[in-house]
Fold this sequence. Notes:
The protein is of the alpha/beta class. The protein has helices at residues 2-6, 39-48, 69-83, 108-117, 131-140, 154-159, 167-175, and strands spanning 11-15, 53-58, 88-92, 124-128, 143-146. A five-stranded parallel sheet has the order 3-2-1-4-5, sandwiched between helices. β2 (53-58), α3 (69-83) and β3 (88-92) form a beta-alpha-beta unit. The radius of gyration is 15 Å and the shape is globular. It starts with a helix and ends in a 27-residue tail after the last helix.
Amino acid sequence: MTSSALHPPRAVLFDRDGTLVIDVPYNGDPARVRPMPGARAALAAVRAAGLPCGVLTNQSGIARGLLDRSQVDAVNARVEELLGPFAVWEVCPHGPQDGCGCRKPQPGMILRACERLGLQPDEVAFVGDIGADVEAAAAAGARGVLVPTPVTRAEEVQAAALVAPDLAGALQLLFGAEGPAPVPEQGSPVLQAADGLPGGGR
Length: 202
């Protein structure tokens, strides 16, 4: 905790499904987008500190033929409407077998986001809910924070260098007690993905 807070990030990037919004597997319907508990408050706190926020998301449903890009874009637009504005979006449309450099745990999306923000990877943090998220951060040279949900595997939690119980805790790990502090929200507890299944991020 201490080492991260000593050098606070200059931008915070977030995974989409299971981190900012409830994970609905291969969702192509904007009407099904629901923010995760604490997401609005965490994003507001980061923006109030003058720092940009971004979203990086694996969307293998495109490669699997379960979604088209227009559906993903429509869902992202709804996320932007509910939780934006975001300084940067990165979407990987590839499947696990495609061998791309952008699908997490590969670092491509983080590296592109850093380039677009004019920052070095070690100036950026990435917050997500599965091992591929923190692995991508490590591969890029960024700081990764895991915020587990009921679908996060135990071995992913054990392997993560930084683990927080929620988004507010992730900000405390990154910025320390004097950093951005979300105002607590009135809302429901963390929800499992619809059907209890991992979404396109896997």
